[in-house]
Recover the amino acids of this structure.
């Protein structure tokens, strides 16, 4: 698909490629990785991904047992289906110190 | 976006995307929570009752045995959550609030001293076993799982520190008045058992130097285990906080790609049995550390694979035995690699390698370098390979069949090229018998490859008669070779030598084994509808060529000398199938075949073969003839003979039941059971089926 014919929304989506995304999914986990692609059903591909599980979804309490758990685990290249995505946040690549806390849910749709 | 289109970074294709783990797919996503699991919150400093501590220890022991049974750490030992927070229970840094709010029946020291010491020692024990297993002799993900999921096994921590921590815990338990005496003793015996285990794990490598200490710890560990076995910790209340100490789903939080699998916790008896097997394994290692002849090693290797179920052979012990035989530098901690060369000839034909090597300038000379290298590179992998898991062991033996031929070829070439003009006939004859030592090892290997197919349930029912027939053929050649080295003018094995004793044993044993193989061959052929093998021969032949592809290996063509046994003679097989069928239908056996068989045995019917086998086996048992083996190894060989003898008797019952004239109803009473149990119990013999009573049938009374 050439960039001259694509819609502004897709052009903006393309600009997000290689940026770091933080994706929250239905079961409470959070994935942080580099966005490398998506397709028409909005499956999201991330590489160099870390998985975090900050809270116990049932109790809402923090898991105590393991510091390594709180610091996340490396899961590599993952594909996150749109149906389980609850929230997507993007980190601005030019200013790594600042995070854009916008909810991109509506934007991508 | 159009359907099927993608937006990706440059040079990223659909195939790259296929390698991604799909989050939310239970088959790939190890972190996915399939159902709502109510895992209680775990606080490592929650005070616990002594019985709860005991329950946690027992539970973790069960998980440790499951790791030794080839399960991943993430599904077993690491489910104990204290393993992930040893720092949090350090008595020097715990928050003061934990110390103040204590309950006298739940002393905090049970956590900060006892559980901390026990968990540290458990992790260190796994680390020591991991170090042995990671030496690379046994394949990862097949015999064991190396994945530590980036969790520390206290690798850099000294064993002495783990022992000291256990000693401190034992000391505290001896002095405390806060723990009832019954539970004091129960926890103490478990800590003492762990202490002995960790010392045994750390001293296996240096066994020859500290044999006495090793045996003392082994004896003490057995004593502890016998007490622990009798005094199991009863299950605790379902609301106990101790349940929170284990999270079977911990793998989804660890750095591992393994899908979460809940490992069933074995019963207490099964756990104690698993430790017992570990201790038995150490006892074998202790004995093997003082065994300095390769025939005994070979026999021990065969025996453990014949009579111990795979589940009963911990990978750790098998790895230790392989390391003990050859640690990359020395054989059995003391001998150089070249030691196996002399032992090979000395133990097989009773002659020193020097008798052979002196004609080429002595051992280590340039002309013998290649031969000696080949012998070393065949014998060492052959021995170590015997402690592999059954399918890998069989594949390894298949590979060594060619290796043995390479050695045989090298010896033959040397003997042929030697100038024998001025050589006296006795020396000439002796030199010509040296290659036979190699043939005997190769034939043993071929026989084991064929018969071990029954152990790993490799053969289709139609292939079984061929396997027994081919084994009988190989044994026939083996018996001829034994005769050649021990009898007549050409016999070179010294009288009264251990080798001659072994050859005599082998001779009797092999005739019995051959008779049993022929019984099975004839009986199986007759059990099929007439001409089944002939009508399905095209398919069967293709299967056999694939099954015995080692026998059709073109690699043999490059060697100067032909192998003694290689390709099976299919025409001869079909002839004997026809004869077996004809005999079964009451037709006379052709006279020439009768004459041919009479060369080895006078008997021809399955019953007569069995009678012969039973008579020979019982003569070996009655005379306590175990060949050149001595000490504990006699028991192993006797077990084989007893098992074969009992199998002969069972087969006799089976044959008499299935050949009753006209009484077909009795045919179904007994049946052959080919299944090889992968539990801890094993059949009487490794190569023959068990005879079982068919279910739902009532045994006829003897006087009927």
């Amino acid at each position: 698909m050439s960039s001259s014919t694509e819609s502004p929304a897709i052009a903006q989506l393309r600009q997000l490629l290689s940026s770091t995304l933080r994706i929250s999914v239905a079961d409470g986990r959070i994935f942080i990785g580099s966005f490398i692609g998506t397709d028409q059903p909005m499956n999201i591909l991330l590489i160099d991904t870390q998985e975090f599980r900050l809270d116990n979804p049932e109790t809402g309490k923090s898991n105590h047992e393991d510091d390594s758990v709180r610091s996340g685990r490396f899961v590599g290249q993952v594909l996150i289906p749109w149906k389980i995505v609850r929230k997507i946040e993007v980190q601005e690549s030019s200013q790594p110190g600042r995070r854009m806390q916008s909810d991109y849910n509506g934007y991508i749709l | 976006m159009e359907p099927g289109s993608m937006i990706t970074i440059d040079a990223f294709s659909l195939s790259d995307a296929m390698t991604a783990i799909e989050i939310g797919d239970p088959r790939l996503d190890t972190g996915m929570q399939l159902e709502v699991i109510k895992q209680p919150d775990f606080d490592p400093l929650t005070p616990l009752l002594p019985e709860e501590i005991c329950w946690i220890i027992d539970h973790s022991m069960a998980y440790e045995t499951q790791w030794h049974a080839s399960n991943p750490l993430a599904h077993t030992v690491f489910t104990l959550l204290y393993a992930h927070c040893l720092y949090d229970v350090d008595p020097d840094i715990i928050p003061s609030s934990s110390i103040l709010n204590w309950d006298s029946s739940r002393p905090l020291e049970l956590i900060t001293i006892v559980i901390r010491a026990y968990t540290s020692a458990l992790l260190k024990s796994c680390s020591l076993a991991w170090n042995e297993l990671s030496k690379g002799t046994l394949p990862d993900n097949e015999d064991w799982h190396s994945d530590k999921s980036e969790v520390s096994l206290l690798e850099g921590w000294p064993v002495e520190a783990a022992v000291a921590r256990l000693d401190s815990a034992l000391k505290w338990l001896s002095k405390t008045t806060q723990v009832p005496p019954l539970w004091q003793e129960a926890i103490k015996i478990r800590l003492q058992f762990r202490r002995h285990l960790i010392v045994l794990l750390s001293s296996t490598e240096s066994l020859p130097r500290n044999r006495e200490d090793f045996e003392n710890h082994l004896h003490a560990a057995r004593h502890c285990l016998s007490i622990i076995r009798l005094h199991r910790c009863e299950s605790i209340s379902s609301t106990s906080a101790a349940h929170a100490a284990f999270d079977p789903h911990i793998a989804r939080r660890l750095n591992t790609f393994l899908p979460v699998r809940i490992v069933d916790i074995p019963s207490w008896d099964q756990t104690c049995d698993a430790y017992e097997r570990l201790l038995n394994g150490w006892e074998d290692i202790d004995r093997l550390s003082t065994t300095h002849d390769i025939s005994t090693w070979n026999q021990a290797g065969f025996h453990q694979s014949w009579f111990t179920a795979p589940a009963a052979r911990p990978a750790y012990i098998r790895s230790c035995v392989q390391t003990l035989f050859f640690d990359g530098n020395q054989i059995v901690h003391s001998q150089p690699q070249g030691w196996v060369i002399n032992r090979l000839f000395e133990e097989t034909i009773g002659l020193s390698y020097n008798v052979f090597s002196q004609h080429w300038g002595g051992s280590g000379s340039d002309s013998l370098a290649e031969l000696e290298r080949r012998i070393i590179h065949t014998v060492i992998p052959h021995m170590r390979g015997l402690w592999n898991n059954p399918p890998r062991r069989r594949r390894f033996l298949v590979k060594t069949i060619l290796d043995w031929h390479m050695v045989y070829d090298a010896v033959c070439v040397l003997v042929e090229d030697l100038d024998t003009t001025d050589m006296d006939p006795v020396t000439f004859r002796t030199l010509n018998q040296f290659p036979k030592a190699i043939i005997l090892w190769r034939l043993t290997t071929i026989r084991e490859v064929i018969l071990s197919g029954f152990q790993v349930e490799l053969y289709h029912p139609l292939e079984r008669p061929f396997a027994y027939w081919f084994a009988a053929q190989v044994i026939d050649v083996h018996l001829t070779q034994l005769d050649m080295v021990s009898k007549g003018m050409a016999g070179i094995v010294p009288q009264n030598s251990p080798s001659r004793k072994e050859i005599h044993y082998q001779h009797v044993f092999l005739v019995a084994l051959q008779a049993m193989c022929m019984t099975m061959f004839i009986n199986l052929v007759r059990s099929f509808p007439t001409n089944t093998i002939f009508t399905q021969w095209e398919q069967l032949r293709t299967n056999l060529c694939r099954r015995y592809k080692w026998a059709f290996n073109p690699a043999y063509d490059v060697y100067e000398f032909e192998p003694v046994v290689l390709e099976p003679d299919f025409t001869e097989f079909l002839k004997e199938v026809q004869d077996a069928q004809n005999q079964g239908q009451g037709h006379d056996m052709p006279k020439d075949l009768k004459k041919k068989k009479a060369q080895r045995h006078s008997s021809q019917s399955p019953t007569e073969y069995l009678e012969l086998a039973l008579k020979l086996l019982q003569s070996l048992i009655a005379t306590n003839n175990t060949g050149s083996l001595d000490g504990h190894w006699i028991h192993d060989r006797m077990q084989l003979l007893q098992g074969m003898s009992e199998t002969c008797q069972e087969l006799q019952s089976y044959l008499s039941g299935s050949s009753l004239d006209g009484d077909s109803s009795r045919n179904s009473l007994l049946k052959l059971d080919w299944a090889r149990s992968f539990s801890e119990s094993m059949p009487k013999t490794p190569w023959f089926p068990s005879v079982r009573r068919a279910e739902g049938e009532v045994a006829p009374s003897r006087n009927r």
